[in-house]
Amino acid sequence: MVCESNTFWGKLFNITIIFCILTSVLIVSFDSVEKINIRYGKILLFAEWIITILFSIEFALRIICVKKPLKYLFSFIGLIDLISILPLYLSFFFNGTKYFIVIRAFRILRIFRILKMWNFIEASHQLTKALYISSIKIGVFLLFLLVLVVIIGSLMHLIEGGHHGFDNIPQSIYWTIVTITTVGYGDITPVTPAGRLFASIIMLLGYGILAVPTGIVTAELVKFARTGHAKSVHSCPSCSKEGHDTDAHFCKFCGGKLQIS
């Protein structure tokens, strides 16, 4: 029941867990408000401990249920489950770690599996793969962008003559990053005509630069859309991983037999 959600009780269990996750995130958010913390701090902490203990029991049950606990522990879902229960325990030794409980919000992604939202599950797999495949191209692009930022920052330092906020190259590089990403804080602005002209060119260039990584990932997503196959939301009872073909009988990650209903 803990690893699958095909039955009524399985769905009810997982929906209850998601409700606890949302409650936990709200508790941490409210606890960070000073007035609420002073008045209801102890009550919120008590409620958070109850939820953390419930999650700890659930985590232990998942380890017991799967045939290969290590596969589950080192999977993305397993690591999120583990990290989501650690912050409150670590708060005994380190101050402020309890606020990392908001990591539990990642566990809400299970709602796609619980409600059998096949398209969303498939879309998440495609997006993850597209980002992974595009990572090398994006890495090269970022390296090129880093070189470009250093060159532009150095030029702006020379154009402005080391004045008007462009006192040194690192500060000029900071201005370049803020400008080229179209953030534009306005704390440093060029004053000379040549500086303003050069800045205008960089601003226009920024729009094109932001589109490059988006285009790389989009191209990979289009490839998956053309060649993609339907996936099942059933998880493997051995390693708890998903993403199997609808006609698969064995897990493609660990080789364990799938429980096909």
Task: Write a brief caption for the model.
The protein has 261 residues and is mainly alpha-helical. The chain is 65% helix and 2% strand.
What report would you give on this structure?
Helix 2 (34-65) packs across helix 4 (76-90) and helix 6 runs antiparallel to helix 8 (193-227). The chain is mainly alpha-helical and 261 residues long. It has helices spanning 8-31, 34-65, 69-73, 76-90, 111-114, 118-159, 169-180, 193-227; strands at 231-232, 244-245. The chain is flat, with a radius of gyration of 25 Å. The model is unreliable at 114-118 (pLDDT under 50). The protein starts with 7 loop residues before the first helix and ends in a 16-residue tail after the last strand. Strands 1-2 form a two-stranded antiparallel sheet. It has 2 domains: 8-116, Four Helix Bundle (Hemerythrin (Met), subunit A) (Up-down Bundle); 123-227, Helix Hairpins, CATH 1.10.287.70. 65% of the residues lie in helices and 2% in strands.
Secondary-structure element string: HHHHHHHHEE
Mean pLDDT: 80
Major β-sheet strand ordering: 1-2
Number of domains: 2
Q: State the CATH architecture of the largest domain.
A: Up-down Bundle
Q: Span between N and C termini? A: 14 Å
Level of helix content? 55-70%
**Top CATH class of the largest domain:** Mainly Alpha
Oligomer: single chain
Q: In DSSP terms, counting alpha (H) and pi (I) runs of 4 or more, how many helices?
A: 8
